[in-house]
Each structure stands twice: as C-alpha cells, then as structure tokens.
C-alpha cells in the first residue's frame, strides 16, 4: 500500500477581504505625507487616530468609529507637538488613552474625552522627555498596564513607568536607528530590527541581547513574533532587491529557517500576525494593486496594499464572521477604507470554532510586578459574551517637575550621541536653503538700490532742476 501525505484542511483557507462601502469610509482627511516608515494610523474599538499634515508642528485626528463619511476640514485635532508626529499607539487596556511621539524629542500621553474631541487638544496629560533625538517608535507592553517603550534616533529604547512618569530602564545595545519593535505573547522578550542590518532578541528589563543575527542576504526592515510558536517573522529585501519574508527560530538566529520571495516591488512590507487564526497578513506601503503571495508552511498569507491600522480582536463584528480588519490609508485621496477579512459561513449564529479565547482588555500585571521580574500570559476573554465590556481602569497622570533624566547612571538629556548621517544631511540642506534665501534677499536689495540710484540720477538731470 503506497504512503500518501495527510493534509489537514484549514477553516480559514477561503478567507476573503471585503472593502467597506463609501459611506462607511472616512473621507476628506489630510493624511500625512511624511516619508517615515510607520503606519500613521491607530485603531481600537472606539476610535480611529490618523497622523495628519499640519503647519507649525505635528497633529493627529481622533475620530469615533461610528462617525464615518466626510470629515470637515476644521475637525478638531490633537496638536500639542512642536514637530511632526511619527507614531501613535492606543493603550490596549484604557481605550481613551493614546501615546504619540514626535520629531520634537518628546513622547506624550493624551486622554481623549468621551464622544471624541469637541475642540483642538493642545495639553497632554503627561509629557515624557528622555530622548536627545527625535522619537520614531512607541509600543505599549502587551500584558502590563502603564508600561510604554519608546525608540529614538539616539539609538536608545527607553522603558517608561507611567505611574511615576519616569524612564525606569534603558536598552542601549543598538548602533543605529531602530526600525521596528515587537513583543512575544507575555512581553518577556523584545525583538528589534535596526538600520545596522541586525535582528536582535532582547530581554527588556536587563537590556541583555539574547540572540543576534547579521542579515546580509536578507536585509530586515520589520519583525513580528508569531504568537507562542517561538518563531519570528521578518520582512525585508533580498540581495536582488526583491521583497522577501523570512522565518526564524527565536532561540537560534544563526540563519533563517525559511526565506520566501514575495515580488519585485519597492514598497515596504508591514507584517501583521493573528495568533488566533495563525494567519499572516502583509501590508505593502505604497502598493497600488494586490500582489500575489504564497503560503509559508502552516501560515496562511494574505497581502493588503498600502499602510494600514489594525482593529483589536474585541472590536470585530463576530456576527459577520469577521476575523481581521484593516484600515487602509489612501494618502492621495485623503481616504481611509476599512477592509474586513471574512470567513464565509452560511449560519448567522456565533461561530465558536473561528473565535477562540483571545487576549482581552484587562492587564495581567502591574508595572511594579513586571519590573521585579514577573512574567504572566495575557488574560483571555471570549468574544461571544465579553467583547462589548468596557475597561474600568482609569489613567491617573503623576504630578512631577521637569528635571534631568538619569537612567543607569547616565543623564539622557546631557549625553547626546553623534548626529546621524540623515540628520547631518538635513542640517546641510537647511543651511543651504537659508544661504540661498539670504542671497535672494541681498539680490533684491541690490536691485532696489540700483533703481533708487537711477531715479535719483534722472531726477538730478531733469530740465526742471536745471
């Protein structure tokens, strides 16, 4: 009798993407055109936040999800930053608290009022200063309340305890700009990608690098932990400049387990992993069409074009068998389209087999417990009964004075690292623009002086004066 391989059919093999109708999209939004490689969009079960174009500082919109349609040009903004906003993230446990970071070197915590903004918000409930360069990334800890990570262009990752409003730890193992951060399920490990072409797995409380890979053939850009599988997935570029994904063992980064080429487009690939369905989604920044993608072993792979925000599981419509939802940013049209990933089912009742217990809105640890070395898996919830429950946790900002920031015996605001190549280039071009502007002003003044001299000469030579 011949041996035949046994294939297990996946219940998610026919998942398809459904774009919302125009009246359920968000239109008329001046989405930022900043070239920084971030999502510029954050979503939770109540609000949609989008970084916008603005003059004289940075701003972002916060829109209640039910307020779809055209957004008025004078819609209130969160506009307290003095520089461009580079990243925004909602607190996973308190739905009206959002963190933002900016080119002005600050991280700020904002409390959005019930029902959304009625006027421009300029005062944050908490301002965090510790980076000496612009701050490009913020991430909330997945199981601990009020622990926030920020990564700056000073090559440092700061861990903030928002109960006291201070940085309590510093990860200082990177030699260039940090491109991406990702936590494992219980938040005991942090994976980072860096502009120095290295992938690192770090123990965040000690800052110790557990594993490090020098990616020469696969130039990494983004990384994501694949749930509790002890696997990492990275997106990047191969030596032939094709977009590529790679699968790694988190305990051995000597070489990738699998490398898979996607296509030859140039847009950055953002990976999103759904641990409940074991589905991987790739969002290609700037992609105008939907490229093809092949499956990666046990993972299903779907490709969604453009930058996107992702709805948490407890915000999905389970009655429509929705298992994932993107919010796709179309910058040129000022449009945001919700895209729902649907499992086709005939029954309209709750489908328990496609909605296992999932991380909920209650933290598993306090900041002091996590900082003392305790690890705990997230508290799970059922989407059948508990997904409409609101969190009872309230954010209380600490009262503190602005002072020097000392972590690991180093004053972060005094020890400024050397400027990066991009910063030096920006300074050079800014100075060149200023020199050109001054030359134009001098030239205009010289022309005006000649005109006045000519008028005076003509006036002296006129017959009337003779």
From TrEMBL:
Q: Which SMART domains match?
A: DUF1899, DUF1900, WD40
Q: Where are the WD repeats?
A: 78-120, 128-170, 171-212
Locate the coiled-coil region(s) and give their ranges: 435-462
Q: Which UniProt keywords apply?
A: Actin-binding, Coiled coil, Repeat, WD repeat
Q: Which domain of life is it from?
A: Eukaryota
Which GO MF terms are attached to this record?
actin filament binding
Question: Where does the DUF1899 domain lie?
Answer: 5-69
Give the family, as the similarity comment puts it.
Belongs to the WD repeat coronin family.
From the Swiss-Prot or TrEMBL record, give the protein name.
Answer: Coronin
